[in-house]
Amino acid sequence: MGEGLKFERFEDLPVWQVARQMTRRVYEVTNQGTFARDYGLRDQIRRAAVSVMSNIAEGFESRTQALFIDFLGRAKGSAGEVRAQLYVAADAGYLDQAQFRALYDQAESCSRQLRSFMTYLESSAPSHRLREPSPDYMMESNIE
Fold it and tell me: What is the dihedral of CA 10, 16, 20, 25, to 10 degrees?
């Protein structure tokens, strides 16, 4: 990320976009065949994938850069959880090798991007906090 690069919405973050693609793919494969009927694993891998997206978003909306970095660490942990559960799914025969590799590569890419983003933020001054601009508004009172 270059100096001065600002994001106004979490949806603009490339790492969030990768997490969204991974989550979409997790939902696709878990809706198929015997994977769809293994409710425990299906629900757990879905929760982990959604957690990656959610923690990136929640961190972006948090009050401080330190909190943002903490949430990115949680997202990275959830991406690792997705990778671990992909092994379970492959070992159970729910995924063929191509499906496993494609999803694993997405989750690993997400983890690498999260680590890079965390490193960038850790090396940046807190004044480089990424967040939505403050709205321009006035509070009106209806009390007479």
Answer: 180
Query: pTM score, two decimals?
Result: 0.83
Place of tokens 């191509």: 98
Q: How many domains does the chain have?
A: 1
Distance CA 17, CA 2 (A): 19
pLDDT digits (tens, 9 = 90+) for 65-121: 999 999 999 999 999 999 999 999 999 999 999 999 999 999 999 999 999 999 999
Q: At 109, which CATH number?
A: 1.20.1440.60
Cα of 3 vs its chain's centroid, Å: 23
Residue 2 belongs to a domain: no
